[in-house]
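Recall the central idea of this unit: under ordinary conditions, the amino acid sequence of a chain determines the structure it adopts. In this exercise we apply that idea directly, starting from the sequence alone.
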Amino acid sequence: MTDRTDPQGLPLDPASVATLAERGLEFRPASLEGEAGEAYIRAVGHGFLEESISEERVEGFRRAMTAWRSAGVFDPASANPLSPVGTIGVQVLDLTVEPDRTLPMHAISEVTVAGTHRRRGIARAMLTGELRAAKAAGTPIAGLTVSEATIYGRYGFSPATTLAHWTIDTRRVQLTGPRPTGRYDAISREQALADAQHLHDRARRARPGEVGAWPMSWESLLGLLPGSKDTEKVRVVRYTDAAGGVRGLLVYTLKSHERDYAQHTLRVQHLLTDGAEGHAAMWRFALEHDLTTTVTTWNTAPDEPLLWMVGDQRGIQREEMDHHWLRILDVPAVLAARTYRVPGAVRLRVSDPLGLAAGEWVFRVLADGAAHLEPVGSPEGGGDPGEAGEGADGVATVSLDVATLSSMFLGGVRAGTLHAAGRILADPASVRWLDATFAPLVPPLLSLWY
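Accordingly, the structure predicted from this sequence is:
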């Protein structure tokens, strides 16, 4: 387990506080208690277009957000000075970078700006401030999941994992995978809590891109907090193997067809499994559910084995999208945290528009897969990433920006793809080596939102 920084004790970035103060705004930690806490929670809800927020839902939000350090930007001249015009929350989570290897990650959430205060630099001040605060605290990487994909690239974030939305025609696919020998049990959401926590913790340690759960995370995801929506529709099935071990949990809802009762849609909310048997068993339960002709899922892994457990792959419609956006803050600490596949070396020249991770290193992969980074320069700020070529030490130079390196890090995006897109400047041999050495042991995935 990596060391963790308590976000509650993490001070706000003084430069961002000063910048916003010059514009007549106050950037300060936000309490979640009392009238001020309710105003903050309602501002977050409104920022994500919640239609109405009941008192019960306010309490649910409060419990879910307790583990996060929340901060707000306040306008003392506004009609409601208790209500923030900008919000942001952070938590330090364990990011899996390779099976059984983790890094502390500055997870960012709750990012909203009121429509009345757009184009005033609030988002920039909050996000750059959090990145500087994380860097100062020694947290080597930041991450977020995004509702709007056009905002965060300018701050050095870039997609490192994808997920896929699947729509499965159960009349067509014809399961050919293994048949379970254990048993299924329908259980309550309350009964599922401990199983969900256990199964997720085991799975996330083996999958790059996953994060450790935070307090109240599974209570929130299972709809156990006050004010949770549509909880009466949520069903849970558990799979136990012949030896009595819990190997799978399926959290799902059913939606009826507008005309034909025998054509329900089963929506997979969460599929948590431990091992191939439980995984196959949970999919078989979903695809063979009575009165159901369609199964949908929102967080399918890029290497999902179900595709090879059906007779007709064309019965599965797949739509891929970006999901986990990462932002490296300390290049040597991050690159040294995982192992690599092929020995070799390049001169790595990294530019950074915010100047937080810019630098030049000889990046060397040893015979045992460990990485060693030797600094050879300290370029400041952003600018052009430079030219490909050979350094004075005879090592080929690879130039890229911090966002590109953040996408490459877990191995989910190939260097060759980024080179073809003009995001990496390097000679062909170096690109081939980067492709080979950054190849992941397991394809990265993040199965949650935060």
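Residues 189-206 form the longest helix (18 residues).
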